[in-house]
Amino acid sequence: MSQLLRQHAEQLFAHELEELKKQDNDKRPANWVLSPQSVVTYLIGGKLKNGFQVSPKYIGNRRLMEIAVATLTTDRALLLYGLPGTAKSWVSEHLAAGVSGDSTLIIQGTAGTSEESVRYGWNYARLIAEGPSAGALVETPVMRAMKDGKIVRLEELTRIGADVQDTLITILSEKTLPVPELNMEVQAIKGFNIIATANNRDKGVNELSSALKRRFNTVILPLPDSIEEEIDIVRRRVESFEKVMELPVEPPALQEIRRIVTIFRELRSGVTLDGKTKIKMPTGTLSTAEAISVVNSGLSMAAYFGDGTLKAADVAASIIGSVIKDPVQDKLVWQEYLETVVKTRSDWSDIYRACRDL
Fold first, then answer.
1. Structure confidence by residue, pLDDT tens digits, 271-294
2. Cα separation values, 85 from 42, 134, 166, 327, Å
3. Which of 92, 142, 313, 358 has its CA 20 to 30 Å from the CA of residue 220?
4. May I ask the CATH class of domain 9-220?
5. Are 256 and 310 in contact (CB under 8 A)?
6. Structural domain boundaries in the chain
């Protein structure tokens, strides 16, 4: 068992990628490790001709993944857009692993991301000693991806300042990165492209300029359509967490996952699943990613402070922490939901007591 806390996609699913390569007889674009058809199979999952089963990385509309992969075969960059927790980063990582065999070329967008982080920087000790030179140049993931013909991931693009965002325009339009200090440029080779992720719900979002938007093909990743789909997503991601963390705990019962997913779906939609009761909505997004986090936290509680079986008391605190982001408004929303919905469900008495006692 690996001692790494989190393996990259190409490490964790190396056996699947290798098997797909062996069975892949379709045409591959330059510097792609898999054909577009095989990349989609890697993402969506399925059975190969030899019976090998590829696990699904994205559970949802296959057509969205086909559009995303097809975009990467063109000269347009890909923007994965959606609410927080809709698996944008997860899909971005696996797309890079499937296309380039390398998901590590990444820039994490923040309010403090500078132009040097996107284009290139300098080793200032060498710059002072030698002046501008190739040896003093510090390559960014974007520059390395251009040289190697790989995919670079740009997470949370809208968190980056607008002036820094626009440094991408030349790269995306001309497929070149000028270095005027050295009177040179880096030209992208085939296989290079950018996958960016963005959402419009977080504070501090910077809208993309129209010039930059035109250079991206946008794929909107929706929330799961059905409760069964969302439960399946949570179950699969939690199982992978258990394997990595090696928790001394029983696998979570689907009943507990179903209740957590039900609570989150009802609160974010403003109505109970049967459509009979309208409820107030909290300020948070209550995404699938947060449901996964709640179950993972509950498993840790059960493993180290319980009897090894996931129970309502193990997840209650995490549920409340996910729902109540605003201590005044969200607390009222949660208390009303607890009394009008959770309390009335006979088989939910344990989770009602656990949440009420906190």
1. 999 999 999 999 888 889 899 999
2. 21, 41, 26, 22
3. 142
4. alpha beta
5. yes
6. 9-220, 227-357
